Amino acid sequence: MDTIHAITQGFANTYVVNGRDGVMVVDPGSRGAALAVVDYCTNVLGVPPQESIKLIAMTHYHIDHIGGIATLLEHCAPDTVVVASEYVRDYMAGKRKLSAMHNWTSCLQTASCCLRIDVPPVFHSYDSLAGVPGLEKLCIPVAQDRFQFSGIRFSSSIGFGDWLLLPTPGHTEDSISFFDPATKSFICGDFILNVEPVLFPDGMINDFCSDHALIWESLKRLVDSVYVAALYPGHGAAVVMQHPGSGKSILLGVGGTSISSQIEMALM
Predict the structure, then answer these.
(1) Hey, which of 30, 168, 236, 247 would disulfide with 194, CB 3.0 to 4.6 Å?
(2) By three-state DSSP, how is residue 120 classified?
(3) Separation between Cα atoms, residue 164 and residue 186, nearest integer Å
(4) Average confidence score pLDDT of the chain
(5) 70, 142 contact by CB (below 8 A)
């Protein structure tokens, strides 16, 4: 059964998934996070990243989620691929602007909770400024042939164990999440947060987004299609059921009120 290890020293969480196919790394968002992944693979898993890391995945093209990908690839085998939304191809080619973001007050609140000053500076160091809205001409320093661009078809395999790619647009147009049907684990980037103040124990939809109605539509579609027993957000602590399968999906508690009422409010 796959295990998930969180690296939380950076502004955003990085997840190391260890399974039968090797290791998948989701959102290595800084050079420090990338080097922490290397250390974890080598000294905890006992397998160097050149042999263990098969796949790197980004939930969306924001700097705090992609800022260490190039550094991590320096320690990986040449056939290690990067999974990303098909929109990222156009961002990298300068053919499309990043999603315009709204509610920056919410972003600042998240930053005040997650920006740590008790960690080495390398955790606030990035491969480039790619992924900053408004700086579209800056491209992530990774060759396009290292990428596996995925379409927006719902529930498609990413080629690592049983893990599936689930489009979850709303925070940004390119936002994707990853779901393991075996463990009911859901790695969701900035789709759902779990930061202070913890108003809802199962997490909250991210109000810092490009399309508030769309992000709630994404949640409703997931509620109708997947059962989540462990939720791993881009910011904040994981939400894990003590007895998986014995209760309702974690997604039903996101935001603290019923999904139907939240959808209605978002669309008003």
Answers:
(1) 236
(2) coil
(3) 10
(4) 90
(5) yes
Give start and end residues of each alpha helix (H) in the chain: 31-40, 49-52, 63-66, 69-73, 86-92, 104-114, 212-223, 259-267
What dihedral do alpha carbons 88, 79, 168, 187 form, nearest 10°? -140
Total count of domains within the chain: 1
pLDDT, residue 258, reads: 43
Residue from 163, 127, 142 nearest 34 by CA:
127
Q: What is the DSSP string of 195-215?
A: -SS-SSTT-EE-SSBS-HHHH
Can you give the pLDDT at residue 198? 60
Q: What pLDDT shows up at residue 153?
A: 66
pLDDT (mean) for 189-196: 91
Q: Specify the CATH number for the domain of residue 111.
A: 3.60.15.10
State how far the Cα of 191 lies from the Cα of 176, in Å rounded to an integer: 8
Residue 241 burial (CB count, 10 A): 17
Q: Residue 37 — left, alpha, or beta (φ > 0 → left; ψ -120 to 50 → alpha)?
A: alpha
Residue 260 above 90 pLDDT? no
Q: How confident is the model at residue 155 (pLDDT cuts 50, 70, 90)?
A: confident
Q: Please, are residues 65 and 189 in contact by the beta-carbon 8 Å criterion?
A: yes
CA neighbor of 45 nearest in space, from 9, 13, 75, 17: 17
Residues, the chain: 268
Distance separating alpha carbons of residues 230 and 217, to the nearest angstrom = 21
